[in-house]
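name: query_chain
kind: protein
chains: 1
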Amino acid sequence: MKKFVMAIDQGTTSTRAILFDHAGKVVGLRQREHEQFYPQPGWVEHDPLEIWSATQFVIQGVLNDHDLTRENLAAIGITNQRETALVWNKETGRPYYPAIVWQDTRTDKICNQLAKEGGQDRFRAITGLPLATYFSGPKIAWMLEHVDGLREDADAGKASFGTVDSWLVWNLTGGVESGLHVTDVTNASRTLLMDLRTLDWDQGMLDVLGIPRAILPEIVPSSSVYGEAKGLLEGVPVAGVLGDQQAALFGQACYDAGEAKNTYGTGCFMLMNTGSELVPSESGLLTTVGYKIGDQEVVYALEGSIAITGALVQWLRDNLRMIDNAAEVETLAQTVEDAGGIYFVPAFSGLFAPYWRSDARGAIVGLTRYINRGHIARAVLEATAFQTKEVLDAMELDSGVKLRALKVDGGMVVNELLMQFQADILNVPVIRPVVAETTALGAAYAAGLAVGFWEDIDSLRVNWQEDRRWEPAMQGKERDKRYAGWKKAVARTFDWVEQ
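structure:
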């Protein structure tokens, strides 16, 4: 019987189930979107029950599409939107409140209050992270303070906290009957609650945020057999979990220190493998866990996180109705030779790396009567490339490693105009792999390694193949001029929201 590994890719806007064969090729895919809720300015929420329902739908759908059953699955791996936080009742399985999404900024007051003593980097030495609304720890603190009955149930041991990986593993392995309450080291490293050195919850952080340890999941490796699925996938090992960006690093075969990838999705995330060395950032990056395979030594990474990239194209489509679908942005942008001197800084929920400015808000600068829809579309694409350059510059400064090429993945890499501009503004080649589903592939690899479907990391390297390469073609003076304009535009977005 032919065997496959299934990856569940639970993202910010949709859930997908993807089947991979031994060569790392996609043999089946099902996807279902879920609703985005914006109850107040700066607030972003998801319905956890809708996410679990969508997960069951895509699992059954991809198996039906290919006349397969659970017996055809060697293992299940999960990758997920990382900092999105939810709390559920372990006796009923019902969430206490909607999931608070990683983009949400409601915890700015909590973060600002904590920063009054010791500044924004107060906990960076322990967690590798600055104080920011991005991370899930402050979101738990907010829910404990504002959701009726949650504090009492948390203290009584009835409540369970998790990022989305924990929620899916718990439901997959039996929920209220036998659900496992775990999270992997990569997701735990994004909570602002884990000590990067011990790979355990830090009691000092829990005390500062008022979070009882009892509601937290057990921290486990990224690749390990956690347990077996119940119900629909009865008996299939649940054996791999990686936060989405770490999963992409793993799927891109960035297994050596100094190798890096950039994922272009709702946001944009560049990660560099720093090996067993924990590299503190002095340039606005995050120090995070890259992955941990079984009982092997943990691998660390530097990360540059950008909040709004693909989401800006969605905004152009949904809010301004300037395009009917995301693919049209490239066609529209190609109607002009350049952005006409305008810059679009998409600080819709503040700025992430390397600034970490929650007071910033979005701006289009340089507008004249000359500007048309094409220029705006082009500026939307260029914003992604400029933000990526800021992160790359910071990464080279922190690591001391000069990148020779950048591996890319995610939904936006089909946009060839963007990829060429990215190579131009970075002045390094940009490389797209044959298998673009690298996030899901990384989760599949982690699960497959745990059950022996793949023998070792070297066998995964062999699967990686180059599809397309873009070489830089822009003159140095032009590059410097464009980038200087971008930096000037970014400065205009600061201090818009008064703290």
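note: The two ends are 61 Å apart (CA to CA).
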